[in-house]
Amino acid sequence: MRDSAVLRIGNASGFYGDRFAAMREMLTGGPLDVLTGDYLAELTMLILARDRLKDPSLGYARTFLRQMEECLGLARERDVKIVVNAGGLNPARLAEELRALARRLGIEAAVAHVEGDDLLPRRAELGLPEGLLAANAYLGGFGIAACLAGGADVVVTGRVTDAALVVGPGIAHFGWTPEDLDALAGAVVAGHVLECGAQATGGNYAFFREHDVTRPGFPLAELHADGSSVITKHPGTGGAVTAGTVTAQLLYETGGPHYLGPDVTARLDTVRLAEEGPDRVRIDGVRGEAPPPTLKAGLNRLGGHLNEVVFVLTGLDIEAKAALVRRQFADALPPGVRPAELRWTLARTDHPDAPTEESASALLRLAARDPDPAKVGRELGKAAVELGLAGYPGFHLTAPPGPGAPYGVFSAAHVDAKAVEHTAVLPDGRRIAVPPPPVTAQNHPVEGELPEPLPAGPTRRAPLGLVAGARSGDKGGDANLGVWARSEDGWRWLAHALTVERLRELLPETAELPVTRHLLPNLRAVNFTLTGLLGEGVAARHRFDPQAKALGEWLRARHLDIPEVLL
Which of 33, 131, 158, 190 has the fewest CB atoms lying closer than 10 Å? Predict the structure, then answer.
């Protein structure tokens, strides 16, 4: 018999394209009450928007439908509710497809969906810009809860917050109301830990060599009525759940202490973590405050067209060879087809006296962008190829130049929560309007207190990563970078040593950018927002690492003077 005081919520997807087998693994690996899946990222919404342009019946994550063909019967046999945002831009159509699938398989399954996030039909009314491919508000968990309360076995949504996939089942199970701010905030934090799948169980973890992460299991949360939770995983699965892996995920793509959401503002500076045993980390103490009066909306539009050419420079005189390419290319490109933006990047991947040709080579990358596809198409590639026998010694490219491709731009807007028509569509077709929060508030920035500095002592020049972990990611054109210490003494040093000024020294790309630092003492962490580092976002491929996924690892590899007592 299941314990009604504990709601076991698992995750089987952290992005569109995650491990296909995870859904079956989670359904068969141990007891669950709810299985969630996050399929939507900022880039995914653009991909789905382009799908919808080709075929209006599309716009949802088709992978999920294939997973359900294999696993819907398992879920019903085990009485596990399925809650996913795989509906993307077309949740109603996905719900129809799921019902047809259930009939074809002879399985009784009540399917509901949540809609109202799609703002594109009301673009002008809401004051959103023209030329959008998609515009979607981030909804909260109460629509999901209404679907579950209405008897749904499967709930599909469009754009909800990632954490709403956990918050909604918590509301339905424990009967939380909008006034239960602390419980809602605790569920938001648990949802944020689960949302990226194996990132909570050792995936993408700074200290990955401490655990067997060959095939990490997916995480689950044992959620309680007060909003506290225990993060764990099914027995016998790979990876690990530790205070470190949970801290890393808590810092991922967040900002300051106020974690804003449509249902509640969760105070990340109140989070307490405690290891209860192997692969069990308790989260409690989370305080909630009223949510803001607006909802975040993700806007996707076509930014223009881009093309890339990568020149391989081998052996000696790398800098001189790169300079020659740039001079020759400037002369070879016809003036009438010069792109609006030409960006050159030289990656010195070469090594002296290298034992292989590849390790003796550097890469010179040319990225071209323009609203006109002709200016980044055939003529651009032709100008590069024509240098083949007249350029630097050893001239070759990593691949023949392509025709160019469109790229998208993501931006965020905020709309009045009262103007968004959040609706739960129940299995029997009834439509339930989900009201906005009765109380909202503008949060006032708070800053964690600096700890007492570590006493002065001898230092040694060493990589930051010997004493600190990091996790980084993207939020539109901004990058987020969280860094945490592994001990109290490490925190006393890190909080004073890793200032904005020091970060700019260590990461020269950020020297001219606005950088905001937040302290999270409970997590022994500093969190940075690097405004504009990613240009117009991941789809525009502004830099080598367009989602800033490895930014934290670059920082950990940088050397600075570290107290010997920490080493």
Answer: 131
CA distance 473 to 546: 9
DSSP state of 255: -
- In the block, tokens 């940088």 appear at 558
Q: How many whole angstroms separate alpha carbon 41 and alpha carbon 217?
A: 21
Find out whether 340 and 172 touch, Cβ atoms under 8 Å: no
- Closest to 379 in 3D by CA, of 350, 337, 343: 337
Q: How confident is the model at residue 1 (pLDDT cuts 50, 70, 90)?
A: very low
CB atoms within 10 A of CB 456: 7
pLDDT digits (tens, 9 = 90+) for 314-340: 999 999 999 999 999 999 988 888 999
**What phi and psi, each to the nearest 5 degrees, are found at residue 56?**
-60, -20
Asked if residue 476 has pLDDT above 90, the reply is: no
443 pLDDT band, cuts 50/70/90, is confident
pLDDT of 416 > 70? The answer is yes
Helix (H, G, I), strand (E, B) or coil at 542: coil
Contacts of 454-458 spanning 24+ positions with Cβ under 8 A: 454/489, 454/492, 454/493, 454/496, 454/563, 454/565, 454/566, 457/563, 457/564, 457/565, 458/563, 458/564
pLDDT digits (tens, 9 = 90+) for 194-211: 999 999 999 999 999 999
As a three-state string, the secondary structure of 49-79 is HHHHHHCCCCCCCHHHHHHHHHHHHHHHHCC
Reference 371, options 201, 252, 536; nearest CA is 536
The mean pLDDT of 396-401, rounded to a whole number, is 94
476 in Cβ contact with 412 (< 8 Å)? yes
Q: What is the dihedral of CA 200, 206, 209, 215, to 10 degrees?
A: 30
Burial class (CB within 10 angstroms; exposed 0-12, middle 13-18, buried 19+) of 528:
buried
For every residue of 419-458, DSSP letters joined together read: GS--EEE-TTS-EEE-PPPS---------PPPPPPPPP--
**How far is the first Cα of the chain from the last one, in angstroms, to the nearest whole number?**
50
Number of alpha carbons in the 13 Å side-chain half-sphere of residue 391: 28
What is the identity of the amino acid at 542?
H
User: Residue 539's pLDDT band (boundaries 50, 70, 90)?
Assistant: low
The tokens for 565 are: 């007592």
Nearest alpha-carbon partner for 530 in 458, 470, 449, 467: 470
Helix, strand and coil content of the chain, in percent to the nearest 5, comes to 30, 30, 40
